[in-house]
Amino acid sequence: xxxxxxxxxxxxxxxxxxxxxxxxxxxxxxxxxxxxxxxxxxxxxxxxxxxxxxxxxxxxxxxxxxxxxxxxxxxxxxxxxxxxxxxxxxxxxxxxxxxxxxxxxxxxxxxxxxxxxxxxxxxxxxxxxxxxxxxxxxxxxxxxxxxxxxxxxxxxxxxxxxxxxxxxxxxxxxxxxxxxxxxxxxxxxxxxxxxxxxxxxxxxxxxxxxxxxxxxxxxxxxxxxxxxxxxxx
Length: 233
Ligand code: DX5
Ligand code: ZN
Description:
The protein has helices at 15-24, 47-53, 74-80, 95-104, 151-163, 178-187, 196-199, 204-218, 225-228; strands at residues 2-5, 29-35, 60-66, 84-88, 108-113, 131-135, 169-173, 191-194. The protein is an alpha/beta fold.
């Protein structure tokens, strides 16, 4: 199980030291929300910030591009030190080329899907991805409530994975707290993105280890995922 605190909920005035705090808290990944003010009604930060914080930690950098035209940004994020780049399934025709380009840049390949979008849209890409990021809120802002209707998508993604013997990770993003993380783990998620659910706690270190304990226990019925993904940590 991977816990990925989202930088969006950290103190933007000191992103580098916040990343160090995430690493010291025992998380494996740092989730980086890239918003272009068009695909979503908000703007966050770009490759320059990622480049600036890269030397501070060895964390796996999980860049989530909520952008209408991510093709123009992939190289910049790869050079800035992104370990994995996710683009959105809603981009339609662009998706095949984008996934290929992410891979050719040497990054892990992620595909994200919004709550209103049918999960069938990602099915053709499952063999080409390392990571399926299921949005559990409509993207654009941190601190929104979890949308429970997204849980069947997690179950479907897990069923496909088992049936086809694939090994993409299943991430959930938005409104993830101790309770909703457990629900997602039971549905088959193995990667938990959380902003306010972790940074809002008095101790980030305790919050990360509590969330990990909860999801390990809740996901225990879902066979030995950690063995399956040992090479991706
Ligand atoms: C939402 C972003 C999320 C966000 C999650 O647009 O993609 O990654 O940071 O924040 P919380 O956990 O606060 O909902
Ligand atoms: Zn995100």
